[in-house]
Amino acid sequence: MSLRTRLRRIWRIARWEVSLGSTSLDRQTLLAGVALLLLAGGIAGAGLALGVDGLSPTQDIYRVGIDDDSPYYNVVADHAALSPQEPDREKLETGELDLIVAPAGNSGTVSLTVGGDDGEGVVEAGALGQSTVSVAHAPTEKGTAALTSFRAAVQGYNDRLMALEPNRTAAYPVSVRLQYRPQSSPTGARGGGSSETDAGSDDGTDTEGGDGAADDGSDGSNGGSDNDQSTDDDTNDGSTGDANLDVDDERDDPDVDNDDDSLLDGLLSGGNSQGSPAEISPPFPFSSLVLAFVFLVPMNFIIQAYGGTILNERINRRGELLLVAPIQRLDIVAGKTLPYLLAAVVAITGISLGVGGGLLSVAAVLPIALAFLASTFVGAMFARSFKELTFVTVTVSVFLTTYVFVPAIFTNVTPIALISPLTLVVMELQGEAVGLGGYVFATAPFFLGSTILFLLGVGVYREEDMFTQKPVPLKFLDAIDARLRGPKSVAVASALTIPFVFIGELLAIAALYVMPIEITVPLILVTIAAIEEVAKSIHIYAGIESDRFDRSIKTALLLGGLSGLGFFVGEKFTAIAQIVGLPELVLGQATLTPAGVTPATTLALFLGPLVLHTVTAAISALGARKDFRWYLVAMLAATLVHAAYNFAVVSAYV
Amino acid sequence: MIRVSGLRKTYGDFAAVVDSSFEVETGEIFGVVGPNGAGKTTTLKMLAGLIEPTAGTAEVAGFDAEDPAMRHRLGFLPEESPLYEDMTPTSYLTFFADLYDVPRGVAKSRIAETLDRLDLEYRDRRIGDMSKGMKRKVAIARSLINDPDVLIYDEPASGLDPLTTNSVLEFTRELRDDDKTVIFSAHNLYHVESVCDRIIIMNEGRIIARGTVEEIRDEYGETTYHVFSDIDLPETEPTSDDRHRAVVDSMGEVETLQDAAADAGGSVVDIRTHEPSLEELFLDLTGRQMAGPRTAAATKPVGDKGVDTAADTAGEPEESP
Fold it and tell me: Within a domain: residue A192?
């Protein structure tokens, strides 16, 4: 069958899948949905047209007695929770007013200092330019709350005025800019422009001093006009500098990205690292959170629909007729997957454009989408009901979200972050360069893993497996067995487990690296040994259980040897970790070096992993030839041998 | 048109089909009958390329059953054929025509013609809103969309009302006139007897009888004689019309009864012969099967004819799949 014919059939199935999806919603549901959307849009539009905004449950909840000519009048009038009333002290006592502000002062920027004993219901003066006011509140809890709200209103009012002030130095005499520097990276790919700075102290903090004009706040707007008194002091010693305005410096500084191209730029800056001291926020990984949210949420909807369509084919043998049509199983799966993959690509592209990303962002998130689809496909092939499918999709979502989200938090902190393709997106948005090695490191496990998962699922996309109600573990074994042929295929299968082993090990590193190294290293060495032993032996067990291989000791040893060899060869691909400098970390050395990542300096060290893998795989295979219980016991023994080897190598070389 | 040789399917220790061998000629309607779990459906699915045989070969229309090219020549109607209920018959059949590379114009006329023959009126109604019989007709139409040489029908009339059943059976007979080769499986032996040219009877995975219904009757059935006398004899039992009846297996026994009646002062007043129905043969044959272990180990190849029982094969050397 020619490739063109196959592609044509795949396209037909994809079109059919789309038409099935579109017809599964009945017209009434569609009409109801459209009507609801129109209704919601109409209400929102009407609200906007009528100027109904700022509705709040606390609207005008506090009644404030204040004269119209008071400089605080606008403060009260502009605040949603405060309602200006005629000032009358008697009403304060009767509870008709919650707060009284008097007497009125002159206009201009206001500043309020409130003191005194709240319990008596009256507080002392505040300062307003050259005026003072007295603020009294009712002797109730509501009165106290009204006072708190009034304070916030004054603060907000002043902030708004300051923000409108053209003289930035006057408005914000002290300006701070923080620069976060990544930990050392051998490639230099990390950090990019952010590592360059023309100023800053050793701790990476660059504080630009002002002229101290805000000490008492008394100069108000007038003080702000005196630009020449501002300072430029990188060392934060408070000394007076030249007349060069810091604001201007920031605008010209290429290191500072003031570009406001996208809506989310402000959200994606990783905390606010410049501005007045009050505006500085800690480097919370907000960008990663937002990215994880905006990229991963659509994936969840897509996999729900995708898992449903795959399981639908299995319910009541509906997909049997496709299987008997002149189409290859792989093409059926490709055709059914294509619409969902395209939907994911469209969503990714749209989101990337929305957050200001580019091609790299799309290329980075695409393998994540593939992993979502591939995992869901396999899960839907194993699930026996929609209930189980729900469990599968939730598990897939949680695991993949965790895997791509948690490391991305540490984008500027550690090279481990690069195990997540989402980190590439963060780096692109931050203007950092991403090398090909970094891209391959972050995405190759996803691409390879997704391919293998799809092939695994296609292996059981057949009559004998699709419509049976076997438990999930048995279906998993069937899926593995479907991909085995002769003993040589065991070696290939072992090599193909590498992406999953890699993902598992990197996830373990990411999860454990924050712990003290003396605890983490032993723990992770055992964990990794267990992961690798499972990867090397599970297909041997599947093959023996299905009677594909006989249960003789000779066969078990042969299969174990081949599995170890295949795994050893496949493991060499983990050398990609070198590219991003992961082995530079102590933990990386402990976890990757003993497995033979680093080019061996001696033949013994090179052959050590080969011997290890063949021996331990043979141990597990010997157990697998008996039964499941013996298989577990043998695998435990193999894990212990493997872990002991790891400890020995780590002790010797790290 | 169909050649099956040594076909076997085992699942672990369980043998679903054991060394089946048979041939089906072009234009023949070939019945596969047997009780539940006899291996009929597994056999049909191996022929359709849906299930990979553990051993043996199946050739359909000159292709190996597992060759995807064979499927262009095959129409398959499974016992359960759930359709996509949100589609209409026309769109559903058009999609399958597309998959079988049937040109759009040909597909359109073929769909119309087939639905006419099946007397299906509501062609643009949602399939989910149709009756079971109408859905079955849509499924039958789908099996014909590629104008196949070979049709495999597994319980085509299962669960249908008598009117629709007759319609389906009549349609199946018409397929023979179109020179189609049909493999027909059914639980209802009347359907099989009324439609099939030849049959095989399967039990516990193996073919236990084969041939035309007449051949099977001749070989495995026994003609019995119902002898009615006007006098009570030790071998007879009274009937509702004051006569006495005895059932014997041979004319010699009939003559013995005639002599006994005469000796007692009476006579034989009526003698009737009884040919066993396929259902009786089926029950007789499958009832004979001894409940031996149904494992891959307890099997042997089946000859062209004859009843193979588990007892016959007990102690046979184990065969590798």
Answer: no
Q: How many domains does the structure of chain A reveal? A: 3
pLDDT tens profile B252-302: 888 898 889 888 888 888 888 777 777 777 777 776 554 444 444 434 333
What is the spatial order of strands in the sheet that B2-11 belongs to?
A: B14-24, B2-11, B55-60, B63-64
Q: Could you report the predicted ipTM of this complex, rounded to two decimals?
A: 0.74
Of A16, A24, A326, the CB nearest to B69: A326
- CB atoms inside a 10 Å sphere around CB A605: 17
Chain A residues within 8 Å of chain B (Cβ atoms): 1, 5, 9, 12-13, 16, 19-20, 23-24, 315-318, 320-328, 462-464, 547
User: Over 90: is that where the pLDDT of A315 sits?
Assistant: no
Instruction: Tell me if A506 is assigned to some domain.
Output: yes
Q: Which DSSP helix (H) or strand (E) runs through B22?
A: strand B14-24
In chain B, residues with a C-beta closer than 8 Å to the C-beta of A550 are none
Whether A12 and B96 lie within 8 Å, measured CB to CB? no
Domain that holds residue A70: 62-171
Query: Are the Cβ atoms of A321 and B78 closer than 8 angstroms?
Result: yes
Could you tell me which residues are beta bridge partners of residue B272?
B226
- With a cut of 50, say whether residue A128 has pLDDT above it: no
- Looking at the structure, tell me whether residues A601 and A577 fall in a common domain: yes
**Boundary-marking domain end, from A415, A448, A483:** A483
Q: Are residues A429 and A508 in the same domain?
A: no
Q: CB atoms < 10 A from the CB of B234, how many?
A: 7
Residues A586 and A637 in one domain: yes
One domain for residues A585 and A542: yes
**Section A137-149 average pLDDT:** 87
Confidence class of residue A249 from pLDDT cuts 50, 70 and 90?
very low
CB contact under 8 A, B76 and A1: no
Residue A55 lies in a domain: no
Of A20, A320, A464, the CB nearest to B78: A320
Same domain, A339 and A477: yes
Chain A residues near residue B65 by CB distance under 8 angstroms = none
Length of chain B as a residue count: 321
Last residue of a domain, one of A114, A143, A171: A171
Q: How confident is the model at residue A112 (pLDDT cuts 50, 70, 90)?
A: very low
Q: Do residues A430 and A185 make contact, with C-beta atoms less than 8 angstroms apart?
A: no
Measured N-to-C along each axis, helices A553-571 and A603-624 cross at an angle, to the nearest 10 degrees, of: 140
SS3 A577: helix
Same domain, A414 and A537: no
Q: Does the residue A416 lie in any domain?
A: yes
Contact (CB<8Å) B74/A1 = no
In B, minimum Cα distance to A7 occurs at B99
B72 contacts in A (CB within 8 Å)?
A: 326
Which residues from A are below 8 Å from B51, CB to CB? Answer: 463-464
Residues A512, A391, single domain; the answer is: no
- Is the domain of A104 the same as that of A160? yes
The alpha-carbon radius of gyration of chain B (Å, integer) is 24
Chain B residue numbers touching A323 (CB-CB < 8 A): 50
User: A396 CA to chain B: closest CA distance, Å?
Assistant: 28
pLDDT at A207: 40
CB contact under 8 A, A20 and B12: no
d(CA A382, CA A392): 9
